[in-house]
Specification:
Order of helices and strands: EHHHEHHEHHHEEHEEHHHHHHHH
Strand order of the largest sheet: 1-3-2
Mean pLDDT: 79
Number of strands: 7
Strand content: 5-15%
Shape: globular
Distance between the termini: 39 Å
Largest sheet: 3 strands, antiparallel
Length: 416
């Protein structure tokens, strides 16, 4: 029986890491900035995948035998009554390949390679390939646009494919409440599943460190369910996977790069190095902050309406996404620095008619949505403040976690 006949997807994702490029400069200045060449990024991705897989498959892990506590206990409760094995919230590595010079130059028929692999270029000499199971190309950022744009793009893709059997269902227009629930349902929504995925990464001892990168958060589903999950906005079928671990690090990484990052926010006259708990607290907070800006982008974009006067139905006149994470970071950290989100940034958002629905959602229940986002986009500064105040006293440090953030009242109000 073939993969396709079982409802699977025969495609795979190949990541090629080749050469140093602009990031491969080996001078001291580049090393000080933490610039890595392609081989170092590939090695970091492989190490991260090994740590995640080991944590997931061990007894008490998400994919291993359940225990009453920890990751396994959490997933046992979440999946109670579901006979299907849990799917890890990170891509499945199928294998690796390194292209030796002789193999590329003497044995490879480049045209045959292109013909059999959809026009992709053959590996460059010395390149390392990481081959992953196919999870699609839909990212969180793909949804940070008004639904009129999302629907129009989906219809355009169907038309370009010629229509007919085998295509996903046509995109569905939903009410503002349905769109918000797709994002905010505390059990099945996009935000909750992002937090679940990040919690698994942290519980494996890793910090992602590049969550705001566009391809780092994938929205996917089983092959036969992708249309219903992503075009019809069915949250129960949705899966969130975190990818691109090439810039990740261990939570308690005490490398010069990480020590320098912590020192920028927690200057100290003490000659003693920061504790492992302080490093972990700060690394977790950095990931939460990055994810907080992704959430803010997603809520403003997905719940927005096209500009008055109008962008075309295809969205050609509207940027994609509707607002960038970088712009949001600038507004919060530079323009409204020191002001709570519910004050400075809210004034800015409320002045934009297209963001009215998102502002209404965040304003509900006394502004609990702004409080939820404040806890995330302000996580790094809160961690730094606590580390400074406790003077590296391990007993006085408390840990902010992705799992705890999921229990915020703002998400709970969207429970069915």
């Amino acid at each position: 029986m073939s993969i396709r006949s079982r409802g699977g997807d025969p495609r795979c994702l190949i990541k090629e890491y080749a050469g140093a490029g602009s990031a491969g400069n080996n001078n001291k200045k580049s090393k000080k900035r933490g610039v890595r060449d392609a081989s170092a990024i590939a090695a970091r991705e492989l190490e991260a995948h090994a740590m995640l897989t080991a944590e997931w498959n061990k007894p008490g892990g998400g994919g291993g035998a359940s225990s009453a506590s920890g990751v396994g206990g959490f997933y046992a409760k979440m999946l109670s009554g579901n006979k299907e094995p849990p799917v890890p919230p990170f891509p499945q590595l199928l294998g690796t390949m390194t292209a030796a010079m002789a193999e590329v130059e003497e044995q490879l028929d480049e045209q045959q390679w292109r013909d059999n692999l959809g026009g992709s270029e053959p590996p460059r000499p010395g390149a390392q390939w990481l081959v992953y199971k196919w999870d699609g190309t839909t990212t969180v950022e793909s949804f940070a646009v008004p639904q009129s744009v999302r629907v129009a793009r989906g219809k355009a893709a169907r038309e370009a494919a010629g229509g007919g059997i085998g295509l996903p269902p046509a995109p569905k227009r939903v009410t503002a409440d349905e769109a918000a629930r797709f994002l905010l349902d505390p059990r099945e929504g996009v935000l909750a599943k992002c937090l679940d995925a990040l919690a698994v990464v942290h519980e494996a001892g890793l910090a992602h460190r590049s969550l705001s990168g566009a391809p780092s958060i994938l929205l996917t589903a089983d092959a036969q369910d992708k249309g219903a999950a992503l075009e019809r906005l069915t949250p129960s079928l949705l899966r969130v996977k975190l990818s691109n671990f090439g810039f990740s690090s261990r939570l308690a990484d005490g490398s010069p790069e990480r020590l320098e990052a912590l020192a920028r926010f927690t200057p100290s006259s003490s000659s003693s190095p920061p504790s492992k708990l302080a490093l972990t607290r700060f690394a977790v907070a950095e990931d939460l902050q990055a994810l907080g800006f992704v959430f803010l982008q997603l809520l403003l974009g997905a719940l927005s309406s096209p500009d008055e006067g109008g962008s075309s139905v295809t969205g050609a006149a509207m940027p994609s996404p509707a607002v960038s994470v970088r712009d949001l970071e600038r507004q919060v950290e530079e323009v409204f620095r020191g002001e709570p989100l519910r004050e400075g940034f809210r004034r800015y958002a409320a002045a934009e008619p297209r963001w009215a629905a998102a502002v209404d959602v965040l304003d509900a229940d006394g502004g609990s949505g702004w409080d939820f986002l404040q806890g995330m986009v302000g996580a790094r500064e809160a961690a730094a403040k606590q580390i400074r105040a406790t003077k590296n006293d391990v007993a006085a440090l408390s840990m902010q976690t992705a799992r705890a953030q999921k229990d915020h009242p703002f998400l709970k109000r969207w429970a069915k």
